[in-house]
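Q: I'm teaching a short session on how sequence maps to structure, and I want students to see two examples side by side rather than one. Could you give me a first protein with its sequence written out and its structure tokens following it? Keep the formatting plain so it prints cleanly on a handout.
A: Of course. Example one:
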Amino acid sequence: MRVLVQRVLSARVEIEGAVAGEIGPGLLALVGVGRNDTAEAVEWCADKVIGLRVFRDAEDRMNLAVGDIAGGSVLSVSQFTLYGDVGRGRRPGFSRAAPPDAAEAWWEHFNDRIRRAGVPLALGRFRADMAVHLVNDGPVTLWIDSDQHFAP
């Protein structure tokens, strides 16, 4: 699993002009599911997202997680293009991305893990054409890749 995380002041997803999910301060998580992902990898990524200490404390240090800040929440958006391979040619290849049925199930598992942790969660819609709006805070943008943790 790959997750591109952005600390935001606000973010929302629109589908056909209607707001599908919206948050105030928190994290926008763009989530890509890989062909070989496992429950352990998905849960590790979700735990990383909710545990990242990227919000400022009273001493202005990045020391707080999303659940520690007032109104903190996560907006999760499925994004298979995080597995786009641009190494050859000009058109990305997606052979390392999970097939849609598996990807949707793992994305839901990721979201359930965040919900169970008690962090408020808003969602995009799987396989929808979405417009994602955000106000990046910092900017703080981090890359989480389970392959880097679970690689042999």
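Q: Perfect. Now a second example for contrast.
A: Example two:
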Amino acid sequence: MGTRAIRTVDYATFRNARRVNQALTARMEKRALNWMAERAPQWVNSDGLTLLGLGAQIAAGICYALTRWDRRALLLAIVCLALNWLGDSLDGTLARVRRQERPRYGFYVDHMVDILGAVALMCGLGASGLLHWATAMAMLVVFLVLSSESYLATYTLSCFQLSQGIFGPTEIRILLALGNLAALRSPYSTVFGHRLLLFDLGGVIAAAVMAVMAIGVAARHTAELYRQEPLKPEPLK
């Protein structure tokens, strides 16, 4: 009886967090997703799109791994990234357009899928030979730290940050696709006379930027929470 009461209260008091997306493509993407959601056939549903997004990201990781033997797999990886964008971005929009929102279920499943997909993608990149495993793991660790900060901020501040500055998931996919096209021509880049793997260079820059973002956002949110809940002096005895 007590468990049922707790579950009822939790559901009744759950509130959707305010969604913030300031990415470069945010406005254009929102219009495109609404247009597609309004015209999607009835057999298309949000759960199916979520599975499409996860499957496509895992497939992208497999394609990256295959580039060790044939770099043309990079083109297939671009297709998988596009399908991942479709599934990952359209599922929530479709649910909102059809008024079939499941806030707790959607938030939990979407972000577990994001974590699993990121692991698959980074493992595929690590196995590809396009960059060193250390770089791939550094990107994965920093991504998971940044994601964790976002989820904690959603709970504590009721604000879900979909982007960090002008970069969001869509911008990252676009940069990956451009990197694929560049690596298809040559997997190497020359910087100050040193020959480096192109994806190693991009991965180190990406990991460093995400680390700085994570530290900066965590510091800002900590200060904001402290202002909201300052330490009160102990009462005089």
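Q: What should students look for in example two?
A: Point them to this: The helical segments are 2-13, 26-39, 46-66, 73-97, 103-128, 133-157, 169-185, 198-228. Also worth mentioning: The chain has one domain: 19-228.
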